[in-house]
Every structure is written in C-alpha cells, then in structure tokens.
Amino acid sequence: MKLEGLPQNVTLHDGTAVVIKPLDVEEASAVLKFYRSLPEEDRLFLRDDVTKPEWLRRFVARIDSGEIVSLVAESAGKIVGEATLYRALHGWTKHVAELRLAVAPTMRRSGLGTSMARELVRLATRMGVEKMIIQVVENQVGARKMFRKLGFRQEAVLRGHVKDIHGMKRDLIVGANDISHIWDAMESLVADFSPSLE
Length: 198
Prior knowledge:
Layout: E1 8-11, E2 17-22, H1 29-37, H2 40-43, H3 53-65, E3 68-75, E4 78-87, E5 96-103, H4 112-126, E6 131-137, H5 141-149, E7 153-163, E8 169-178, H6 179-193, E9 196-197
Parallel strand pairs: 5-6
Antiparallel strand pairs: 1-2, 1-9, 2-3, 3-4, 4-5, 6-8, 7-8
Helix pairs in contact: 4-6
C-alpha cells in the first residue's frame, strides 16, 4: 500500500536509525517472525494468537480490503515494531478507528512507539477518522501509561471480558480520545523528546 509521507526515516533518541513504512504484504511473513520473537508475557494479552499462519492470512486479507493499515518499523533489516489502525469501512462507526501497537523489548522507551502512533494518527486524520479507541488488558501497565500520555481516557472497564493465552480471565479497559486531542498530545510529546525525522 502506498501512503503519503511514507516511508519515514527516524533517528530515535538513543541514536538508532529506524524506517517506518507500510507493511508490504509480499513480506508479511516477517511480521509473523517479529511476533514470534516477542516474549510470552508480551503476547499474553494480545487479542489474537499472532504466532499462527492463519492469523497472518486474515491480517493480510484485511489489509487488502482496506479495513486496516499496518505500519512496521525496521532497523538493520529487521522488524522491531508493528502498529495497526483498524477501522470500519461502512456503518455508524466508520468515523472511529482502533489503534494497536507492539514494540520489541529492546526498542522500548526509545520513542519508537510514539513515532509509530504519530504516523498512524496522521494517516487516520487524512482518512476522515474523528475518534480513536484503544483496548488494553488491566495488566498492560506500560501500554496504559503510553496511551495516557497520548491523551486517551478510560471510558469503560469490562470485568472478566477477555481470557489470556493461559485461559485466565482479565478485565478489558477501553480508552478513547478525539483525534485532534491526540494530535495535540503528540505534538507536546515530540517537543519534549523529539526523535529526528529525515
């Protein structure tokens, strides 16, 4: 998929050079490899089993349909992050999109997650998205903290709504924010921390 302004070269604040670009479905198997490389505790609370080829086939089909936009971050030829924008193409929530994000443990606190989220918000704005939501499990403390920094506010807690990969029930937290407020929060974060774009 060709998206305006991408690929984007980013230098993170630890000096790591990263390229953020749309996922090329011809190279989608690299995403499977990325998710399989994550520690189990990172995959414990993901909505889908992202280690299975069947998940990848469904994921690629949704990219082809335009229902999702997937961005990957590459460093030294390896995927180190994946961010996805899920949106309805029809119906009463077509102005709403869901943001999902995964970053390799070695790349956390480097600004990569914020940089990837920023690109998705920019793309979402151009697609006419007005509101973004996130869904996180209670135990995802790091993700909850990052999304709070981006201006997301808790709107609902669904008790025992999800089961982790071991079958344990967990509370699901739904957060939301108006996209213009997310953009303002990102602008102030970037001003504070500013990875460089080339």
